[in-house]
Specification:
Length: about 400
């Protein structure tokens, strides 16, 4: 868990600094990236008043509201450091978000690299029949040019934990915190809760963190909304775009041993709800679950199938790209079994993990690229190599 936490921290830090190149949503984030962002002026803004960024009502109205969704939590990964009772559970969560419309204000800064920010305050309450997760928890959300938040977030200190679970620390000196992310109730009823622990002994600190629970009324995560792929989305027929691009596709490829072949893909969109999210760069992305079957002309791959997804990126109602992703495990039931990848033998190998990735760009097909990577695990090798696999066979794919 510490490794995942460390990776998350690095990604967050990188995200903040990348954001600062085009504008930070808050002055403290700019300062973390080396920009001295001092507030020059704070100007109150009425709820419906227009600014260069839009009105507070246009930017933040969807954050206010109340909704209910199935909630589940799983604390089984914390067994070595915390005792959490109940370890797992399911319930129904009610999320209520209130905005203080009178608190809206425009922040201008002294440094050109720090853009104007429109901010507003509010409170969030998360209720379970087992007890409150958060009660009237304050938060502040802000938007700047091209950077509009898709979620609100806050952190609960240990003394503010609700009674819905009992948490006992194995190390009394450790401090706990819960990070909460909530989607705008006006757009989707979803969110997630993470748990973190930190211990400082002398001048040495250590910590870990990870997910604890989540809620959703569509199966989509925090910051996402449910989409019916059978209906036009932002003027785009998503199902038709996927069928045209990947329904029946033949891709040229070269194996890592230098031999050339083609890979034929058959892709079918599943009749289930998809999930869409807005990105900070102005793009919106809908992720659609699909069934994929792959076969290569040279016979190495024959009927390799699995459940994958296609990420469809849209900018201003125009398709930018479609990204196909698939990861599936091919397991030998016995040494006499055969796999849909002839490059592995069940007499020697026990499992192959196949990962397919391919990007199609609508405005420049010459940029299309991807790969089919097959991670081969030998049956008798107790010490596999890098990445846990004994070898990796790659098929580099082009247009």
């Amino acid at each position: 868990m510490e490794t995942n936490r460390g990776r998350a921290a690095v990604l967050v830090a990188l995200g903040l600094c990348v954001g600062s190149l085009t504008g930070c949503p808050a002055s403290d984030q700019c300062e973390k990236c080396g920009l001295a962002c001092e507030v020059l002026a704070t100007t109150p803004v009425a709820w419906t008043e227009q600014t260069a960024l839009g009105s507070p009502e246009q930017l933040f109205a969807s954050f206010a509201g109340s909704c209910q969704a199935p909630f589940q939590w799983d604390a089984s990964g914390w067994g070595s450091t915390l005792t959490i009772v109940p370890v797992q559970g399911q319930s129904t969560l009610t999320a209520t978000v209130t905005l203080d419309t009178a608190s809206a204000r425009l922040l201008t800064h002294t440094t050109g690299g720090c853009p104007d920010v429109l901010q507003i305050d509010g409170t969030a309450t998360l209720d379970l029949p087992e007890g409150k997760v958060a009660d009237q928890q304050p938060f502040t959300i802000g938007a700047s040019a091209g950077l509009i938040p898709s979620t609100l977030g806050f952190v609960l200190k240990e003394e503010s934990f609700g009674p819905w679970v009992s948490i006992q620390k194995s190390d009394p000196s450790a401090t706990l915190s819960m990070s909460v992310t909530v989607s705008p109730p006006g757009l989707a009823c979803s969110g997630q809760i993470g748990l973190g622990t930190q211990t400082i002994k002398g001048n040495v600190g250590s910590g870990s963190g990870g997910p604890l629970g989540s809620w959703s009324d569509t199966g989509c995560g925090a910051g996402q909304v449910g989409v019916d792929p059978a209906q036009p989305w932002q003027g785009i027929d998503v199902a038709a775009a996927i069928a045209t691009t990947f329904g029946q596709a033949t891709l040229s490829g070269t194996w890592s041993d230098g031999s050339a072949t083609t890979l034929v893909l058959t892709t079918a969109t599943l009749a289930t709800a998809a999930c869409a999210e807005s990105l900070a760069n102005g793009f919106t992305v809908v992720t659609v679950p699909v069934d994929v079957v792959a076969t290569s002309a040279d016979g190495r791959v024959q009927g390799l199938s699995g459940r994958g997804s296609v990420r469809v990126s849209v900018n201003q109602s125009s398709l930018r790209d479609l990204q196909l992703n698939l990861s599936t495990d091919l397991v030998c039931a016995s040494e006499a079994d055969t796999l849909p990848y002839a490059g592995a033998s069940c007499a020697i190998d026990g499992q192959v993990t196949a990962q397919l990735h391919f990007n199609h760009y609508t405005d420049d097909r010459a940029m299309d690229a991807g790969s089919l990577e097959l991670y081969v695990f030998e049956r008798q090798n107790p010490s596999p190599g890098i990445g846990g696999a004994d070898r990796v066979d790659s098929l580099i794919l082009g247009p």
